[in-house]
Amino acid sequence: MRSGFSRRSTGSITGASLTSHGTVAGMGESGLKRAAVVYNPTRVTRSALQPLIDRAAADAGWGETIWFETTLTVPAKVLTREAVRSGVDLVFAAGGDGTVRSVAEGIRDSGAALALLPSGTGNLLARNLKLPINNVTDAIAIAFTGRTRNIDLGIATLSRTDGSIEEHGFLVMAGMGIDADIMANTSEALKKTVGWLAYVDAGIRVLPDARPFRIRYQLDGKPVHSAHVSTILFGNCGTLTGGLEMMPDAIVDDGLLDIAVLQPTGTLGWIDIWRKLRFENGFLRRSSIGRKLISATSGSASTISYLRSAGVTVSLDKPRHVELDGDEFGVVAGVRFAADAGALAVRVR
Length: 349
What we know:
Layout lengths: L11 E2 L2 E3 L5 E2 L9 E5 L6 H14 L6 E4 L6 H10 L4 E6 L1 H11 L5 E6 L5 H5 L7 H10 L1 E13 L5 E6 L2 E5 H7 L3 H7 L2 H10 L6 E7 L4 E6 L1 E5 L21 E6 L3 H18 L4 H10 L6 E6 L1 E14 L2 E22 L1
Parallel strand pairs: 4-5, 4-6, 6-7, 7-17
Antiparallel strand pairs: 1-2, 2-3, 8-9, 8-17, 10-13, 10-16, 11-12, 11-16, 13-14, 14-15, 16-17
Helix pairs in contact: 1-5, 2-3, 6-8
């Protein structure tokens, strides 16, 4: 099950009422800016959050905040669009990476700003933007008093095996291969209990049967290439949980996607990938001496290849699972990934 949903339905919001589908009715405080909070009740508690936001909004001279609770049947994207249509200036995404992604889809190109209250397992966008992870008060203060930064939104156009087409957004990273297979086999119940260790459990079950697969890919304006890969990742940002630098040169507002093609051979190949992510892409890259050491010790063959493009189209010999920001999005026959440049206005320090 994708994050950003709960099993409870919402009843009312501060200063307004909701229909059964979350439609806002009866609001209006002309002349004052307003914020909305779209929250996942399995991740955050409104009773704990509301006093903090109400106080910060009042201090900043904003009007009354409105609240939307996600449910299994009404996702954050739908509620965010309702909030935007009501004229709010700012939308808080309070939940995990799935909630943040869904809110971003709803706020895309609207002019309203996105504020992050990260409350999930990875909280990857907040980490990449250097926003508070464990300090709710600071995160709220940034929302009301920080600056606005326009960043890109990744767009995945999924071609299903039945011929249907779907479009979804992603903020950090999308992928096919071992990463997507792990996401497809991760227990939601275990993730809520032990956090990121649930992915380790899934990896132990997936890796013994993992085999490279053939793809054909075409970067925008370039010829078609083919490759056998274990995983291919498409990144708007480059940093993963634990500080792993999957794509050290990725920039969140350059209008481009960074692409990592993983082609390890055996156990030693995976060890080489781990070394590269932990050391080469991390602290060694940050100094001139470290960069010289990387250059001197790099062989001609690499287990990771990097590409960059505004868009890339991928076709598959056999259908594969695809994941977006750590959520499994089913099986696809092909997919196009692209960057929607500057589509999101995000509140940052």
